[in-house]
Design brief:
The complex is a heterodimer of chains A (413) and B (429).
Chain A: E1 4-13, E2 16-17, H1 19-28, E3 34-35, E4 48-49, H2 63-66, H3 71-87, E5 98-103, H4 109-122, H5 131-134, H6 139-148, E6 155-158, H7 163-176, E7 181-188, H8 193-200, H9 211-214, E8 230-238, H10 239-244, E9 252-261, H11 274-287, E10 296-298, H12 305-319, E11 326-329, H13 340-356, E12 358-359, E13 374-376, E14 381-382, E15 387-394, E16 398-405, H14 408-412
Parallel strand pairs in A: 5-6, 5-7, 10-11, 10-15, 11-13
Antiparallel strand pairs in A: 1-2, 1-8, 1-9, 3-4, 7-8, 9-16, 12-14, 15-16
Helix pairs in contact in A: 3-6, 11-12
Chain B: E1 8-16, H1 22-32, E2 38-39, E3 52-54, H2 67-72, H3 75-91, E4 107-112, H4 118-128, H5 146-150, H6 154-163, E5 169-172, H7 178-191, E6 197-204, H8 209-217, E7 244-245, E8 247-255, H9 256-261, E9 268-277, H10 290-302, E10 310-314, H11 321-335, E11 343-345, H12 348-351, H13 357-372, E12 374-375, E13 398-399, E14 404-411, E15 415-422
Parallel strand pairs in B: 3-7, 4-5, 4-6, 10-11, 10-14
Antiparallel strand pairs in B: 1-8, 1-9, 2-3, 6-8, 9-15, 12-13, 14-15
Classes of the chains: A alpha/beta (413), B alpha/beta (429).
C-alpha cells in the first residue's frame, strides 16, 4: 500500500489567511460569522455569513490573471501557493510528477452573474472573453496547473460538502498510479447575491441575525447553517517521494478513506444513518484501525436538528461501544459552511490539532443535545491527538470519511 | 494499472444524442453519416455569431421521467437519467431496492459534466433579475430547486437514488474531458476494489444564450450559419470552429468476474485510461500535442497494449483549426508508424460538441465500433488539410475488425485524456 502524507497546507478562510491565522482564531474561540458585507442580503432572509475579510487578491494573484478569473479562483490560486510554500515544494524537473485534483461546488459565481446580467440587459456582445474560462467548475484546477506548470493527471470532483475529502480519496488513486504529489482540497466563493439565493432554496440556512444564534451544530437551539467562503488546499505526497526530496515537516498521514451515498432522496437524508455510518466504518477498515483508536472526530456539523441527530446516530453506531466517549467537534461553526472548501479546511484543522495537542471547540455550542457515548467538545482544550477522523456530507446524500494520523517520526521520537 | 488484477468491462450502454433515440438509433445515425446539426431552435440566435447547434428533441416525460423529476432537474440531469435507464436495462443488471443480485453498497456512480445546470441557472436568473435589470435578485420568482442547479452533484444523486446505488458517488467536472474522465474514474473505483459495478457517464446541455455568447467571443464555435447541416467539419481544411451540441451517454461498468458470473454480454474491456495537463493555456493548444500523446501512451501502457494494435481512434476532432492539428500531431507522436494506417474519425461532425458529455458519447460509439466491427465516419470531410494528413474515414462508415480502440479528448484548462477499449476476445500478441 502506498503511503500518503500531507506536507503543505494553504488556508484562505473566514478565520484567516494562512494556516496560523486560522488556527489562532479556533484556539482563541473567535468565530468569523458576521453580517454580510458587499451587498444587502435582507431580501434573502439571511443576514450572516463567513466571509474572508483579510484577503487581498492582488497580494496573491497576478493582475492579468485576476481579470480572467473569479474570486473563487483567486482564493484557490492563493491557497495553492501557500500550500506549496508551506511544503517547501518546488516543482520537480518532471512536470508530470505533480497533479492538481480539487473539489468544486458552485464555480465562478460572481463573475458569471455579472456576465449573464450583461447578456440579458445589453446583449451577447457584452459577454467578455473570459466567461468561458472563469465560471466552469474546472477553472481553478486549470489555472493552478498552468500557472505552476503541473502536468500530472488533474481532476475536479463535485460532491457538494463532501468534495474536499473526496478529492483526497481520488488523489490516493492518482498516487497509487504513479504520480507522487497532488494538490487537493478546494475553495468556494458563493457569498454573492445569486449564489446565496440558490443556497437558500436548500431550506437549511439559518435566518438568525445574531451570530450566536445562527449556526449552532449539536445545540438544542440549532436552526440551520450559515454559508461561508474560502477553504484550503493541501499538498499530499507519496511518503517515499516526500522523504526523497528531503521534506522538513510532515503534517500527518492520510491512512483511510471511505465514501458512500444515501441513495435515498434527491434532497433529504436517509432516516437511518446507515450509509453515513458505513462510510466511517469503511475509512477505519481502510486505515486498519478500530474505533477505539480514534482520538478525535471532526464532524460535518450541519446545524439542522434532523441532520445533526443523524450524524450523532452514525457516530454512535461506530463509536458507541467504546469505554471512553470519543471527542466530537465541529470547527465549521467558526467559518460557516464552505461547501467544497469546508471539508478541506477541516482536514487542515485536524492536522493542526495533532501538531499542537489542542482540540478546537464548537462555536456557539451552549446547550448540547443529548449524545450518549459521545463527547461533544464545546471549548478548545489540550488533548493529544494521534488519530483523527474528518467527516463530511454533501447535499443529496454524499457521505465521506477520512482518517488522519500523526506522523510516525514524531510519535516515536 | 490495476494493482489488484481486477478488470473492467462495459456491459450496458445508454445514449441520448442529437438526431436519434437510444444507443441503437445513435449507432444507426452515426454509421449512416447523417448529421444532426441545425439552426438553433431553443432561442432566437439571430444576435449571436454562431447560430448552429446539434439539439436533442428531448421530452423527459415521454422517456419515462416523472413530472417531479422533470420539474426539479435541469435538462442535463434529465438526459443523464434517461441514458442511465437505458444503460442499466441494456446491461441486464437487476439494481434497486429489494433486489438480491447485486449488493447496492457495491454499486457506484460517476457522472461527468462540464457546465452542469447552466441552462436552468440562466433561465432562473432571467426570472429573478427581471432579465438582467437587477443585481440583487428577487427570491419570490425563484424555483425551490436552485440549490440542485447550483451544485451539479445533484446529477450523481439522482442516479444513485434511481438505482439504489449506495457505493461511492461523485460528479466529475473537468470541462470537455469530463466524459472520458468519468468513465476513467469509474474504472478506477472497480480496479481498486471499491465497487463491482459503476454507473458512469456524462451529460451536458449547454445550448443556451450564455454558453453560445461566451464561445462566440473567443470564436471557438463555427460561423457557418448558412449551411447548418454541414457546419461541423473536423479535419477538413475549411473547418472554422465547433458546433455546440448536447446529450448524454451512460455506461454500465462492471468488474469482469462479476459480469462473467451472471453471464452478461460484454461490449468491450476498459483496458487503460490516463489524463495529463498541458499547463500551457486555458484555451490554447501547442501544435506539438506532447501532453495528449503522453496520455495516450500511458493509457496504452496500462493495458499493456502496443501502439500497433490500435485499429481505431475516436478523435476529439472538435473542428477548430488548432485542435485538429494538435490532435493529429499527438496521434502521430504516440502511435508512431501505426498512425499512418489507423482509422481515425470524429463523430462531432454529426452530433456536435456537447462539452463534457461528448467524451462519454464517444466512448459509447467506440465501444459499439469495437463490438460490431464497424468504424463510424467523419462527415462533411471534403477538402484535405495538409496539416491533418491521417485517415479520417471520410463520410462513409467502414467495416473493420477492431481489437483495440482509443478515444481521446482535450479541454479548456489544458486537460488531455485518453481511454483504451479492447474487444473481449483480444489476445496479447
Amino acid at each position: 500500500v502506498t503511503g500518503l502524507v500531507v506536507t503543505g497546507i494553504g488556508v484562505v478562510a473566514p478565520t484567516g489567511v494562512g494556516v496560523e491565522a486560522h488556527w489562532s482564531s479556533l484556539v482563541r474561540g473567535e468565530p468569523a460569522i458576521r453580517p454580510i458585507v458587499g451587498f444587502d442580503p435582507a431580501q434573502y432572509g439571511v443576514s450572516l455569513a463567513g466571509q474572508v475579510t483579510g484577503f487581498v487578491p492582488a497580494d496573491h494573484v497576478d493582475p492579468r490573471l485576476m481579470v480572467q478569473t473569479d474570486r473563487w479562483t483567486w482564493m484557490s490560486l492563493a491557497a495553492a501557493t501557500l500550500a506549496a510554500q508551506d511544503a517547501g515544494y518546488t516543482p520537480p524537473e518532471d512536470a508530470y510528477a505533480t497533479s492538481v485534483f480539487l473539489a468544486a461546488g458552485s464555480g465562478g459565481n460572481e463573475f458569471s452573474q455579472h456576465e449573464i446580467q450583461g447578456l440579458w440587459a445589453k446583449g451577447p456582445k457584452s459577454v467578455g472573453a473570459y466567461q468561458s474560462i472563469a465560471w466552469f467548475y474546472a477553472a481553478s484546477t486549470g489555472q493552478i496547473s498552468i500557472r505552476d506548470g503541473y502536468k500530472g493527471p488533474s481532476g475536479v470532483v463535485v460532491s457538494e460538502g463532501a468534495g474536499g475529502l473526496d478529492s483526497i480519496g481520488w488523489a490516493r488513486r492518482v498516487v497509487r498510479r504513479g504520480t507522487p504529489a497532488v494538490l487537493v482540497g478546494g475553495t468556494e466563493a458563493g457569498v454573492t447575491p445569486y449564489a446565496l439565493l440558490c443556497q437558500a432554496t436548500s431550506g437549511r440556512l439559518s435566518t438568525a441575525t445574531a451570530p450566536e444564534d445562527a449556526y449552532k451544530p449539536f445545540d438544542r437551539r440549532a436552526s440551520g447553517h450559515v454559508i461561508g467562503e474560502g477553504g484550503a488546499i493541501l499538498l499530499v505526497e507519496e511518503t517515499d517521494a516526500a522523504r526523497a526530496r528531503g521534506v522538513e515537516r510532515v503534517w500527518g498521514e492520510v491512512v483511510g478513506h471511505g465514501a458512500t451515498h444515501d441513495a435515498h432522496h434527491h434532497a433529504d437524508p436517509a432516516p437511518d444513518a446507515r450509509q453515513y455510518a458505513r462510510a466511517i466504518q469503511l475509512s477505519l477498515a481502510d486505515a486498519g484501525i478500530t474505533p477505539d483508536e480514534v482520538d478525535l472526530v471532526l464532524a460535518d456539523g450541519a446545524g439542522v436538528p434532523e441532520l445533526d441527530a443523524l450524524e450523532l446516530e452514525a457516530l454512535q453506531r461506530v463509536f458507541g461501544g467504546r469505554a471512553d466517549p470519543v471527542p466530537v467537534t465541529a470547527p465549521s461553526s467558526f467559518t460557516g459552511r464552505l461547501m467544497a472548501g469546508g471539508s478541506a479546511l477541516d482536514v487542515a484543522t485536524a492536522l493542526l490539532a495533532m501538531r499542537d495537542g489542542i482540540v478546537p471547540g464548537t462555536a456557539y455550542l451552549d446547550d448540547p443535545v443529548d449524545a450518549p457515548g459521545l463527547d461533544l467538545v464545546q471549548h478548545s482544550r489540550a488533548q493529544q491527538v494521534e488519530t483523527a477522523v474528518v467527516l463530511a456530507r454533501g447535499f443529496g446524500g454524499f457521505n465521506s470519511s477520512l482518517v488522519l494520523r500523526r506522523p510516525t517520526e514524531e510519535r516515536t521520537s | 494499472v490495476s494493482t489488484t488484477g481486477r478488470r473492467v468491462v462495459i456491459t450496458g450502454i445508454g445514449v441520448v444524442a442529437p438526431g436519434s433515440m437510444g444507443h441503437e438509433g445513435f449507432w444507426e445515425m452515426i454509421t449512416a453519416g447523417r448529421t444532426a446539426t441545425r439552426r438553433i431552435t431553443f432561442f432566437d440566435p439571430s444576435r449571436f455569431r454562431s447560430q448552429v447547434a446539434a439539439e436533442v428533441d428531448f421530452d423527459g416525460r415521454k422517456l419515462g421521467l416523472t413530472a417531479h423529476e422533470v420539474f426539479r432537474n435541469d435538462r442535463f440531469v434529465q438526459m443523464a437519467m434517461v441514458a442511465a435507464d437505458e444503460a442499466v436495462a441494456d446491461s441486464g443488471l437487476a439494481l434497486g431496492a429489494g433486489v438480491e443480485a447485486t449488493d447496492p453498497d457495491r454499486v457506484g456512480v460517476v457522472l461527468g459534466t462540464a457546465v452542469g445546470a447552466t441552462m436552468r441557472l440562466e433561465d432562473e436568473y432571467v426570472a429573478v433579475s427581471d432579465a438582467g435589470t437587477h443585481w440583487l435578485v428577487d427570491p419570490q420568482y425563484a424555483s425551490r430547486f436552485l440549490h440542485h442547479a447550483l451544485v451539479p452533484s445533484c446529477g450523481a444523486t439522482e442516479l444513485a437514488v434511481r438505482f439504489g446505488a449506495s457505493g461511492p458517488a461523485t460528479v466529475v467536472s473537468t470541462g470537455c474531458t469530463s466524459g472520458i474522465d468519468a468513465v476513467g474514474y469509474g474504472s478506477q473505483l472497480i480496479e481498486d476494489g471499491d465497487a463491482d459495478v459503476v454507473i458512469a457517464g456524462a451529460s451536458d446541455a449547454p445550448i443556451s444564450p450564455i454558453s453560445m455568447a461566451c464561445f462566440d467571443t473567443i470564436r471557438a464555435t463555427t460561423g457557418n450559419n448558412d449551411d447548418p447541416a454541414h457546419a461541423a467539419r473536423p479535419f477538413d481544411a475549411r473547418r472554422d470552429g465547433f458546433v455546440m451540441g448536447e446529450g448524454s451517454a451512460v455506461l454500465v461498468l462492471e468488474e469482469l468476474e462479476h459480469a462473467r458470473r451472471r453471464g452478461a454480454e460484454v461490449y468491450c474491456e476498459v483496458s487503460g485510461y490516463a489524463n495529463r495537463c498541458n499547463a500551457h493555456h486555458m484555451t490554447g493548444l501547442r501544435p506539438d500535442g506532447v501532453e495528449m500523446a503522453e496520455a495516450i501512451r500511458l493509457a496504452l501502457d496500462q493495458g499493456r497494449i502496443d501502439a500497433d494494435e490500435v485499429g481505431y481512434v475516436n478523435a476529439h476532432g472538435s473542428g477548430t483549426k488548432q485542435n485538429d492539428r494538435h490532435e493529429t500531431a499527438a496521434v502521430k507522436l504516440s502511435l508512431g508508424p501505426t498512425a499512418q494506417q489507423v482509422s481515425m474519425s470524429s463523430i462531432k461532425s454529426m452530433i456536435g460538441h456537447s462539452l463534457g458529455a461528448i467524451g462519454s458519447i464517444e466512448i459509447a460509439a467506440t465501444a459499439l465500433a469495437v463490438q460490431r466491427g464497424v468504424v463510424p465516419p467523419t462527415a462533411n470531410y471534403e477538402v484535405p488539410d495538409p496539416e491533418c494528413d491521417l485517415d479520417y474515414v471520410p463520410n462513409t462508415a467502414r467495416e473493420q475488425k477492431v481489437d483495440v480502440a482509443l478515444s481521446v479528448g482535450s479541454g479548456f484548462g489544458g486537460f488531455q485524456s485518453a481511454i483504451v477499449l479492447a474487444h473481449p476476445t483480444r489476445r496479447t500478441p
